[in-house]
């Protein structure tokens, strides 16, 4: 975890929107981190400092906020960036993985040539909630023969169980901050 000062600062910049998208949900809006130049720099720096000495071949960012995080992190780590896209957005041959949402399902895709067997991949998104999206993305990465060295996010919502599911799948997780029971 980053320095407590930065964790508290970044957590304080995240906007909470009550009752969105439905009543009873406390939505954690990270766009406030992205629009604040000081907070955004501290956020990217925290991830870069975490992974600077890791042996990483690629950063895989989950559509769409994972793109915002993943690209500058990959740049700073001098590695490639691979987008994990929503279904129908990639123009070449793809592998797909579907997962359940609270109301329905969704599918993510990767190009079949996104990774080489044995590649070491950092998987990143804005938050870990129920874990469905991250697990689907990890499954795709592993299906292509690469290894997910860690799943990273700005926010972990441990009460929703996603981080535990990732751990049960053998994937280490890292988050900048947590929001529990709020």
UniProtKB/TrEMBL annotation:
One annotated GO molecular function: adenine phosphoribosyltransferase activity
Note the CDD domains from the entry: PRTases_typeI
- Cellular localization per UniProt: Cytoplasm
Report the domain of life of the source organism.
Bacteria
Its UniProt pathway annotation is: Purine metabolism; AMP biosynthesis via salvage pathway; AMP from adenine: step 1/1
Signal peptide (UniProt feature, chain positions): none
What chemistry does it catalyse, as a reaction equation?
A: AMP + diphosphate = 5-phospho-alpha-D-ribose 1-diphosphate + adenine
Q: Write down the EC number.
A: 2.4.2.7
Annotated InterPro entries: Ade_phspho_trans (IPR005764), Adenine_PRTase (IPR050120), PRTase-like (IPR029057), PRTase_dom (IPR000836)
Give GO BP annotations, semicolon-separated.
Answer: adenine salvage; AMP salvage; purine ribonucleoside salvage
- At the top of the EC hierarchy, this enzyme's class is transferase
What Gene Ontology cellular-component terms does the record carry?
A: cytoplasm
Q: Which residues form the Phosphoribosyltransferase domain?
A: 30-158
| Keyword terms, alphabetized | Cytoplasm, Glycosyltransferase, Purine salvage, Transferase
- Name the family the entry cites: Belongs to the purine/pyrimidine phosphoribosyltransferase family.
Q: Which NCBIfam families match?
A: apt, PRK02304.1-3, PRK02304.1-5
Question: Could you tell me which PANTHER family the record lists for this protein?
Answer: ADENINE PHOSPHORIBOSYLTRANSFERASE, PHOSPHORIBOSYLTRANSFERASE DOMAIN-CONTAINING PROTEIN
**What is the documented function of this protein?**
Catalyzes a salvage reaction resulting in the formation of AMP, that is energically less costly than de novo synthesis.
Q: Subunit structure, briefly?
A: Homodimer.
Protein name per Swiss-Prot or TrEMBL: Adenine phosphoribosyltransferase
This chain's source organism reads Oceanospirillum sediminis
State the organism's lineage.
Bacteria, Pseudomonadati, Pseudomonadota, Gammaproteobacteria, Oceanospirillales
**Gene name linked to the record:** apt
């Amino acid at each position: 975890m980053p320095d407590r000062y930065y964790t508290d600062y970044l957590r304080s910049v995240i906007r909470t929107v009550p009752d969105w998208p439905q009543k009873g949900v406390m939505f954690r809006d990270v766009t406030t981190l992205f629009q604040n130049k000081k907070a955004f720099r501290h956020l990217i720096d925290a991830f870069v400092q975490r992974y600077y000495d890791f042996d990483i071949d690629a950063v895989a960012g989950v559509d769409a906020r994972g793109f915002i995080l993943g690209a500058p992190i990959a740049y700073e780590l001098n590695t490639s960036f691979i987008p994990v896209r929503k279904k129908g957005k990639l123009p070449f041959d793809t592998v797909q993985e579907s997962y359940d949402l609270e109301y329905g399902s969704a599918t993510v895709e990767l190009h079949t040539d996104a990774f080489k067997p044995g590649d070491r991949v950092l998987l990143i998104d804005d938050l870990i909630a129920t874990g469905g999206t991250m697990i689907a993305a990890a499954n795709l990465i592993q299906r292509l023969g690469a290894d997910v060295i860690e799943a990273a996010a700005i926010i972990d919502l441990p009460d929703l169980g996603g981080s535990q599911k990732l751990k049960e799948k053998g994937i280490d997780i890292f988050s900048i901050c947590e929001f529990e029971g709020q």
